[in-house]
Structures are given as structure tokens and as C-alpha cells.
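Shipment paperwork, digital attachment
Item: protein structure file
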Amino acid sequence: MQRVGAQTSTLALADSLYAVGDYHKAIQIYEKQDSLSASVYQKIASAEQARGDLNKALKAYEKSIQQNSKLVVAKANYGKLLRRTYQYQKADSVYTELIQQYPQNPDFQYQLGLIKEKLKNSEAYQFYEKAIQEDATHQNALYELASFYYQKKEFKEAENLTQKALASAPKNIKMQLLSALNAYSQRDYSSALKRYQKVNQLGYTSESVYEKLGMCYYQEAFITKAIEAYQHVLKLNAENAAAHLYIGKLYLHKEKLEDAERHLLMALLLAKPKLDETYQSLGLAYKGKQDYKKAMHYFNLALEEDPKKMRSQFELAVTADNYYADLQTRLNYYALFLNKFEEEPKASIFIKLSKRRISDLKKEIHLSKKAD
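Attachment content:
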């Protein structure tokens, strides 16, 4: 009896450590028990999962279930963890078995729907429908089913489901966003505007939300509000070309020509693709093939895109060194590199190589003159 009492006390200590988040110490105490029961293995699994060691958590769940196959919570958590660790076939088996035992459990239906989606099973949506049949306000199942219909462009079905969900949980941000997107995709800008405003009121902001708000305000002829929305986009991402473009257009509406010009020019600048990396890579490819003429062409194009592109400038010198017969021409390319980048700390290795090559070329030039 004394030993049983001591073990109970030890388990209580482990439980209290688990409760305050000291999972490692709790696990150490759990594992020191004389005999580990299914429920203790379940606690170990939960603690391992909480501290992020998912493989150990899975092993502990397996031991728990082996000892007691009736531990439904352990089975359900094990299935969820299998899904999280991409073991979809195993997860499918676990939840199929759970549903056979508890066909009216809505969350089991929902979980199996998620797994079926990962397995690319086209009938996944049916499990969301079953979950909703058992729990008409199951927010996660409603969201997944509404998303399914939205992706199929069955907007009416998606609308019915989002509104059904929001009737019982109006602060569900995910559902509010899907509801707004559903209206926006149908160009129902009036409804979309109200819904995105609601999203904002709930404290959710993002680049995408402000972009769509801007378009809704624009389509509903609220020009100043549209500008404000797109300005919020630029606060989150100053390089959003579309936001600059629409602000420019909106300023044209208001006949603020200088502001329009500034944003339209910025849109043009940002919309222009940055090709310097592609040109440099092509230059390196042709240099590797010893096609030095083409390599020089692409290094020059990279420098036209970005005159401060240090690697392209150096590789141009190396390629010219291989391409031209004239020693002074070859030397000049290295000198040009030094002239541009000698004060650049990041160029130290290239500077060293350029100076060494210039020194060698000067010796060759001197010797060639003596030979003449």
C-alpha cells in the first residue's frame, strides 16, 4: 500500500509539472515508474508532443494503444499526429476504425476528411458533409466544405456554407475572409466591401485584404477611401507595383497629376523584371563552355541592368582576358573593375585576383616591348 501511495504521489508531481509546462521533467518522472500503464504512456506522448519531439510522441501513443485499445482520446491524438507527420495511410486506418466505432462523432468525420484530401481522394468533401450532419455548426468542417465549393466555382454553395458558419461564429476570421473572397470573385464589390471592412474591424490586416479593399472602394466609386486602402498596402510592402499603379490611376481621377506621375513611374520601375541575375548566370554558362564572345555579351547586359553588379564586372574582365589577344585591352578590363570596386570591402578576393593579374599582364607587356 505504501508503495502504491508513493507511486500515486510521484504521478501527481509529474502531472503538476506537465500542467505548468515543464514537460521534460514530467517525462523523466513518468518513465521512472515501476510499470508504465496505458494512461501513463498517453501522458508521455502528450508531453513529448508538447515539447516538439513528434517521433517519441508517436511511439508513446503506440505503446499506450497496444496496452489498451479502448483509449479513444489516445487513438484520436495518434491519428492527428500521423497526419501532421505526413503518414496519411496510417492516419486513414486509425480514423476509419474510429468512425466504425463512433460513426456519429463529427470531429472524427472531419479529421478523416482532412486525411482523404491529403491522399487526393475526391470523396474527402463527403466526410465534411457527414461532420456537419452531426454538428451543424462545426466551424472547421464548414470551412473546408465551403472552400471545396469555392474552388469548384460553385459560389452559391460556398455562400450558403460561409453564412451558415458566420451565423453561429461571426468572429471566425477564416470564414469572414472566405466569405469576402467568394463575393469578390463574383465581382459583387458591394458585398465584398462590407465583408472586408468586417475583417478589418475584427483586427485582421494583410496586404491582400487591403488590395481587395482598395479595388472594392474603387469599383464603388469611393476614390479617397480606395487611395487610403492602397496606401496601407504600400505600408506593408513598399514594392507592390499593382498598388502604385492603382494609386496613380486614382490620383488621375482626382487630377493630382504630380502624385499620379510619382506612383505610375514607381509602378513602371517595379514592374520591370530584374534580369541581372539571369544575364550573369548565362554569362557564367557561356564562359564555362569557353564561348567567350557570348559570355561577354551577357555580362555586359547584366551590368546594364545593375552597374554595381560586382561579380559580373569581374567575370567580364576574366572573360575578356581569355577572349582578346591584345594584352593592354585585357589589362584595361581588370583596371576598370578596380576603378569601380577597389573601395568595396566585399570585393576583397576579386580585388586581390585583379591586382595579381594586372601585375602579370604588365610584365608580359614589358617583355613584349623588349622583344620588339
